[in-house]
């Protein structure tokens, strides 16, 4: 096992490394090996933040032991996701694995050629294309003609028309069959074949667009075969406590429509505490940030409104937009904030005024308070300019 296997665990070589190591995953789980906790973190961060990177930021460790734990955490994470028995969880997990992998690919591609040649922990674009049997389907292409540009799913399209010597080209051509397999019109009109430059059976794309298409291929591979069936009672029992913690992040909505009013005075105590904590310029933990963002989205706030609402806090606008987009994607996999019980396990909810007897979660608690209030003051209405003065 080497660092590249751990970095890209969905590669065929990584699967072969796990198989050849002769490591028993049930034995690792029974021994509560470090790979098990890393797997739990992997899934939790996928559900909370759309990434599977270690919260410590370190990857991989210097020792072979750390590399092995990182690699083995991937198949164990897939077991955990399977035990959750939730299609939205699988979708979120696969998307997070793919997004994290492509972040690493982009950093690898930015590595100087000289450094890349002596490093065993970086991947070249040719390696990624070969992994997905695209070596013959994707070819370097010329830069865009004047006035022609392409769309983008995951990053800015185009870029400079030239590139440094020895670097990957800025534009590529993908065989039309592979293009249709890798992309989706749902990504935007610019991805529809009718809006693309097509010549000699190939579609012209920017480098960023090619990487976005490859991210979709990674996501598909990660999700393939999930959920596992017949994992066995002993393995399920050994992972029961970790699965229970993760399942708490998948609480069902308990209301038909959001209250569609933003009255901070009626917020649940836990959300008020988080807002005040961020207003004091204290960095929120990933669980705290997720809970707050999910609540604000859940009561009907748009990403722009959440950015404005949190303008004077430790939360940055870019992070808010990323997380609110993650929480309100168009695939029907939105997540409400966790229940009061789960928030209590994270030290976020303290059951002030015994409010768990009133509602099981922040959204239902807020909905009840709004319904019972004699008067509400909508923060959004206060922000709208005076229609008579335009001020």
Quick overview:
The protein has 391 residues and is mainly α. The protein has helices at residues 3-7, 12-21, 25-30, 34-49, 64-84, 87-110, 113-118, 125-131, 176-182, 207-223, 233-238, 240-247, 269-279, 286-298, 303-309, 317-327, 340-345, 362-372, 379-383, and strands at 138-141, 171-175, 198-199, 202-206.
Topology:
Layout: H1 3-7, H2 12-21, H3 25-30, H4 34-49, H5 64-84, H6 87-110, H7 113-118, H8 125-131, E1 138-141, E2 171-175, H9 176-182, E3 198-199, E4 202-206, H10 207-223, H11 233-238, H12 240-247, H13 269-279, H14 286-298, H15 303-309, H16 317-327, H17 340-345, H18 362-372, H19 379-383
Antiparallel strand pairs: 1-2, 2-4, 3-4
Helix pairs in contact: 4-5, 4-6, 5-12, 6-10, 14-16, 15-16
Description:
By secondary structure, the chain is mainly alpha-helical. Helix content is 50%, strand content 4%. It has a 4-stranded antiparallel sheet. It starts with a helix and ends in an 8-residue tail after the last helix.
**Overall radius of gyration:** 23 Å
* Helix segment tally: 19
Termini distance? Answer: 63 Å
- Overall average residue pLDDT: 82
List the helices and strands in order: HHHHHHHHEEHEEHHHHHHHHHH
- Count the beta strands: 4
What labels would you give this structure?
mainly alpha, 4-stranded antiparallel beta sheet
């Amino acid at each position: 096992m080497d660092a590249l296997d751990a970095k890209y665990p969905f590669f065929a070589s990584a699967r072969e490394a796990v198989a050849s190591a002769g490591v028993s995953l049930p034995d690792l789980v029974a021994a509560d090996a470090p790979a098990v906790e890393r797997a739990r973190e992997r899934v939790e961060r996928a559900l909370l933040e759309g990434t599977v990177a270690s919260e410590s930021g370190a990857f991989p460790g210097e020792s072979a032991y750390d590399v092995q734990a990182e690699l083995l955490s991937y198949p164990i994470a897939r077991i955990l996701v399977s035990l959750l028995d939730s299609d939205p969880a699988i979708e979120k997990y696969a998307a997070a694995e793919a997004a994290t992998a492509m972040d690493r690919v982009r950093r690898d591609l930015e590595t100087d050629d000289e450094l890349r040649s002596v490093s065993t922990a970086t991947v070249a674009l040719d390696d990624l294309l070969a992994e997905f049997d695209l070596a013959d389907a994707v070819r370097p292409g010329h830069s865009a003609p004047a006035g022609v540009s392409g769309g983008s799913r995951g990053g800015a399209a185009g870029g400079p028309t030239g590139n440094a010597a020895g670097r990957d080209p800025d534009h590529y051509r993908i065989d039309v069959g592979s293009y249709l397999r890798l992309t989706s019109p749902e990504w935007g009109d610019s991805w529809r074949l009718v809006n693309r430059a097509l010549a000699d059976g190939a579609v012209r794309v920017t480098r960023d667009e090619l990487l976005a298409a490859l991210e979709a291929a990674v996501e598909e591979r990660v999700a393939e075969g999930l959920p596992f069936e017949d994992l066995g009672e002993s393995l399920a029992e050994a992972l029961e406590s970790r699965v229970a913690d993760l399942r708490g992040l998948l609480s069902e909505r308990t209301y038909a429509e959001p209250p569609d009013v933003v009255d901070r005075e009626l917020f649940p105590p836990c959300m008020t505490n988080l807002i005040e904590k961020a207003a004091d310029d204290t960095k929120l933990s990933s669980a705290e940030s997720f809970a707050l963002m999910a609540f604000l989205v859940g009561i009907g706030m748009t990403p722009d409104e959440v950015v404005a609402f949190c303008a004077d806090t430790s939360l940055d606008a870019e992070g808010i937009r990323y997380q609110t987009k993650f929480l309100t994607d168009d695939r029907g996999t939105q997540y409400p904030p966790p229940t009061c019980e789960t928030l209590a396990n994270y030290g976020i909810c303290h059951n002030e005024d015994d409010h768990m007897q009133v509602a099981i979660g922040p959204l239902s608690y807020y909905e009840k308070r709004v319904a019972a209030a004699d008067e509400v003051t909508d923060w959004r209405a206060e922000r709208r300019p005076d229609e008579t003065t335009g001020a």
